[in-house]
Design a protein that fits this description.
Blueprint: H1 2-49, H2 56-84, E1 92-95, H3 96-106, E2 117-122, E3 127-130, H4 132-148, E4 155-162, E5 166-172, H5 185-193, E6 197-201, E7 206-212
Parallel strand pairs: 2-4
Antiparallel strand pairs: 1-3, 4-5, 5-7, 6-7
């Protein structure tokens, strides 16, 4: 039990650091684009001071581009703040749809994954009692795997369906007959921590995860603070 808990905690720390690196790298990229755009605007102003006509359409385009990049940076930082709050309470009630949406924003920060479209196609909000950090961790690995193995249409669809006791997150549109083991030991370990089940139908190109309404019998429950 102690070995399992230790591996789960190590994976949590690794995931938290990796995600922050992805987010900070993306913010840095956006700031570099904003810097380049502002540099071009400054050059245009300098040329106008030397008598060259200042093209308003060009300025309008550059200004609009900068506004879009600022909004993009703000969205990334909001996601970073939301993610940071994942460790406020080790186990608590969370809206599983909101966490899916957050991971859908975080995963494509890896530029290699942006060639595949990712869509949330159905499902209502569903509150479950679980570990936000490890739920995000599992979703991150599953979504990344899916984006790296899309079917011919290069579109991955995510749906959320619930009944009285469980919630299923299904990903469809994956390539069929993918070689290699999935879930790996890492995903299986995270699923165990969440009292969840994960399965991949290689023939249909479908992957799904089933989560209980409340974590029961999970190794990470031993890490809850003593009242």
């Amino acid at each position: 039990m102690e070995n399992t808990v230790g591996r789960i905690c190590a994976e949590g720390f690794s995931f938290f650091g990796m995600t922050n690196r992805l987010i900070s790298h993306e913010v840095k990229n956006v700031l570099a684009i904003i810097s380049e755009t502002s540099g071009l605007m400054y050059e245009l102003v300098e040329l106008s001071e030397k008598g060259m006509r200042l093209p308003p359409d060009k300025l309008r385009s550059l200004s609009g581009s900068m506004i879009e990049d600022v909004e993009r940076a703000n969205r990334i930082i909001r996601n970073m703040n939301t993610f940071a709050h994942s460790v406020d309470d080790f186990i608590r009630e969370v809206d599983i749809r909101e966490i899916v949406g957050l991971m859908m924003e975080v995963c494509p920060l890896d530029s290699a994954l942006r060639r595949t479209e990712l869509n949330l196609v159905g499902g209502d909000s569903r509150v479950i009692y679980t570990s936000p950090l490890f739920l995000e961790n599992l979703l991150f690995h599953v979504i990344n795997f899916s984006l790296r193995h899309p079917g011919p249409g290069k579109k991955i669809h995510i749906s959320i369906n619930s009944n009285e006791s469980r919630t299923r997150i299904a990903l469809t549109g994956l390539a069929s007959h993918i070689t290699g083991e999935f879930p790996t030991r890492k995903e299986a370990l995270l699923a165990e921590a969440l009292s969840a089940e994960i399965a991949f139908d290689t023939h249909r190109g479908e992957l799904h995860m089933d989560f209980p309404e409340r974590i029961e019998g999970s190794p990470i429950q031993s890490l809850l603070p003593i009242d």
